[in-house]
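Need residues for this backbone.
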């Protein structure tokens, strides 16, 4: 409007100048003007007026164009200023479903049967037959121990048994004779009973000596260290010539071998209390390990402690795994993936979208280029993301990293970004 008024004023000023030029050309004659020279053409007053008019029009057009450019620039600057005043925000779409559908927890792998092997007799190691990593069968000989004292004691015990048996036979014969003499009244009843008692005592001595021989024979059998079950040797802590102490006769017995059954493994997992009701015996589970993350190892929940640990607030769960192919090793660190039932129409959003306000938890949602603070309910917290049980849908545009001053009704320019794992 100001530009139009300026143009009209300029046109009026130009018309006044044109009228003055016309008046000067027709009525005023310059003083002391020399007479035209002979042969020269008189000046054309009409041409001068035309040139003046053209110059005035050009000047007017230049002024008008300059005013137009200035007005257009001011309008563009005003629009740019208004656009710059509207903040731009990054928004994401919530992920349908929940990470709670698959709960991944660290687990500790243990052999199904794991035992140290000690010696039950004293002596010196004569020879060992298997080293660490060897697969052995039940009853297979692992090592031999020399026990010269036990061998000598066994020989002595056997000789003592033969002596006692001979005495028992003599006592038996004597008792029979005295019983025959008693029938003929050749001896007294007291004497017959005495010989009978001697025979019974001799029989008891034989039994005791025989038991001692069996004990020493058993100790002698302990010279052979055999595998108690099928498995793999994970440790060998002895060598030829080592002095061996019996496991029960020493305060600190030395472990000779360590044997682990690895065809079937146990995996123990500490499940947080919040998920304990979703864990049931007989459910399936999947194992992964960092050394080969693409390989999925099936397992099964076989038992749980059925009690929450008061110090860790977790439920101890055992998952059994078939390891006939030798994929896992005892002591390995794995992740156990439990399949949990989904809870309603839940979505998952990043944790850096939450706003903690006095009225409760809020999330900024862009609707029609304006922000609306929406109340939400958290189902589970996964650290870098949260499960939203109510308040959002997968089609909403949720503001990332909202400022503390963000309020409902603020106009914004949304810019959709994709998170890792979103398609």
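Answer:
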């Amino acid at each position: 409007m100001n530009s139009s008024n300026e143009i009209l004023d300029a046109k009026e000023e130009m018309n006044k100048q044109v009228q003055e030029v016309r008046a000067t050309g027709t009525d005023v004659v310059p003083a002391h003007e020399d007479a035209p020279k002979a042969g020269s053409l008189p000046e054309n007053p009409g041409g001068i007026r035309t040139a003046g008019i053209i110059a005035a029009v050009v000047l007017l057009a230049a002024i008008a164009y300059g005013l137009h450019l200035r007005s257009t620039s001011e309008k563009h600057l005003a629009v740019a200023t208004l656009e710059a005043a509207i903040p731009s925000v990054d928004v994401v779409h919530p992920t349908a479903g929940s990470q709670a559908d698959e709960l991944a927890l660290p687990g500790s792998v243990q052999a199904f049967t794991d035992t140290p092997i000690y010696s039950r007799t004293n002596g010196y190691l004569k020879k060992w037959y298997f080293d660490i990593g060897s697969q052995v069968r039940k009853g297979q000989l692992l090592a031999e121990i020399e026990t010269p004292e036990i061998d000598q004691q066994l020989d002595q015990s056997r000789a003592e048994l033969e002596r006692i048996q001979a005495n028992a036979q003599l006592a038996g014969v004597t008792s029979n004779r005295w019983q025959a003499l008693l029938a003929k009244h050749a001896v007294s009843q007291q004497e017959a009973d005495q010989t009978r008692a001697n025979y019974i005592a001799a029989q008891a001595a034989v039994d005791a000596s025989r038991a001692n021989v069996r004990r020493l024979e058993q100790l002698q059998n302990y010279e052979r260290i055999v595998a108690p079950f099928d498995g793999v040797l994970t440790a060998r802590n002895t060598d030829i010539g080592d002095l061996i102490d019996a496991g029960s006769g020493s305060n600190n017995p030395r472990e000779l071998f360590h044997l682990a059954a690895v065809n079937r493994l146990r995996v123990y997992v500490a499940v947080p209390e919040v998920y304990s009701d979703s864990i049931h015996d007989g459910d399936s589970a999947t194992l992964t390990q960092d050394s080969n993350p693409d390989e999925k190892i099936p397992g099964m929940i076989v038992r749980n402690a059925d009690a929450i640990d008061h110090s860790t607030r977790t439920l101890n769960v055992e998952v059994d795994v078939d390891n006939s192919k030798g994929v896992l090793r005892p002591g390995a660190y794995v992740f156990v993936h439990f399949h949990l039932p989904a809870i309603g129409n839940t979505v998952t959003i990043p944790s850096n979208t939450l706003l903690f306000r006095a009225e409760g938890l809020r999330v900024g949602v862009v609707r029609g280029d304006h922000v609306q603070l929406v109340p939400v309910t958290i189902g589970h917290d996964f650290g870098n993301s949260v499960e939203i049980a109510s308040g959002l849908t997968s089609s909403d545009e949720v503001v990332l990293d909202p400022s503390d001053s963000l309020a409902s009704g603020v106009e914004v320019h949304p810019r959709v970004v994709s998170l890792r794992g979103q398609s």
